[in-house]
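Quarterly update from the structural biology core.
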Amino acid sequence: MTLVEPTVEERQAQRVYWDLLTHFDGCAPCRGEDYCPVGARLRSAHRATRSALPGAVPAAKTASSPREGS
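Predicted structure, tokenized:
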């Protein structure tokens, strides 16, 4: 089985998602979906990197919570 290396965009999207989840684990307002400014910025960055991936489906107008598997 040959492993395929992730692209730069995929690695960036993974890193941003990791940063978002790490922040959510330590931020009570974000866990309750009352997002703080940092959480809002990270969610926006996550949506942007996710939508920049090749073959990505255009982002919806309403953002889902990372806890919902986005």
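The longest helix spans residues 8-26.
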